[in-house]
Amino acid sequence: MQPNAYFRPDDRELLRAALRQLSGRFRSAVLFAGLASSDQMQLTDFLGTATSSLHHVVVVPGAGLGGRVLTQRQPFLVENYIASKGITHEYDLAVRRELLTSVAAVPVVVQGTSRAVLYIASRDRSPLGESVVREATEASTEMAEELRVRDEVDRRVSILDTARAEPARTVDRSWLEHVREAHAELRSLAGTVSDPELARQLDLIGGHLAPPPAHAVHPTVRLARRELDVLAQVALGCSYQETADRLGLKAVTVKSYLQNAMTKLSAHNRLEAVSSARRLGLIP
After folding, report:
1. Using 50, 70 and 90 to split pLDDT, how confident is the model at 130?
2. Mean pLDDT of 228-243
3. What would the pLDDT profile of 52-84 be if each residue is shown by its tens digit?
């Protein structure tokens, strides 16, 4: 197997995309956000701010509006930030300098952990409505799903890196099954991510995981990406429906892709197709 060509895209790009999405919906709003670590969150991205007062704010769990949202993992809206009794007031100075009044904060929650917070604020006296929270929640949900996929890719790539670091185990069948499962999962994830660069990298990794062709075999067969995706799942013993569920396809579409692959591989059944694809170095 060749080294992975994978690198995780910058998660801040997801923050910026979410803020741009919300800015298009609420043009007069002040928007800002930050990614959370285990013990704090640095505000890093801003739209519509008039000063730099928020640019150096570090939010800790439980403190202020953002800290409450980080801890409780639920959206929260305050109609008058400075006068609100529902939050603590460690960050009032920065809020005053920016002349913010009504502020909503929505967490980006991935598998029970707050990973970021999106803020929408106004400077006028009219409070933000529930529609703001609803729109921000939709944006945070989309971001959370993308982060979940990226985390899963990291986990699978980590498995492969660990396996690659132990070449002596290449004859271990359980090790090989881990590689095959990781390969199949990465191929299925490639079809779900919205980031085209990440999808391209996952396709490259899938190709790198395949072993070199068997001795004296010259691979002249070229399978389409979806044909390889289907074969990778079938190689794990997945049924048409299971493969369809993993790849986000219909069972009849999976069957069509598999039949195309079988024809190209001169195989009479699924077992022969998988065997031939492995012999040609198309799948691990």
Report:
1. confident
2. 86
3. 999 989 999 999 999 999 999 999 999 999 999
The pLDDT value given to residue 74: 96
Q: How high is the pLDDT of residue 216?
A: 47
**Strand ranges (E), 11-145:** 30-36, 41-47, 58-59, 76-78, 103-110, 113-121
Mind spelling out the 3-state secondary structure of 187-235? HHHHCCCCCHHHHHHHHHHHHHHCCCCCCCCCCCCCCCHHHHHHHHHHC
Query: Rounded to an integer, what distance in angstroms lies between the CA atom of residue 140 and that of residue 109?
Result: 8
Binned at pLDDT 50, 70 and 90, residue 162 comes out as low
Residues 6+ apart with CB under 8 A from 165: none
Burial of 130 (0-12, 13-18, 19+ CB in 10 A): exposed
Q: Which residues, listed in sequence order, are joined to residue 78 by a DSSP beta bridge? A: 103
Phi-psi category of residue 213: left, alpha or beta, with phi > 0 → left and psi -120 to 50 → alpha: beta
Distance, in Å, from the CA atom of 69 to the CA atom of 140, rounded to the nearest integer, reads 13
Assigned architecture for domain 166-279: Orthogonal Bundle (1.10)
The CATH number corresponding to 12-149 among 3.10.580.10, 1.20.1330.10, 3.30.450.40, 2.30.29.30 equals 3.30.450.40
- Residue showing tokens 């790198």: 208
What's the average model confidence in pLDDT over 4-25?
86
How many Cα neighbours within 13 Å face the side chain of 140? 29
Q: Token match 């997945």: residue?
A: 238
Question: Is the whole-model pTM more than 0.90?
Answer: no
The token duo for 273 is 């197709």
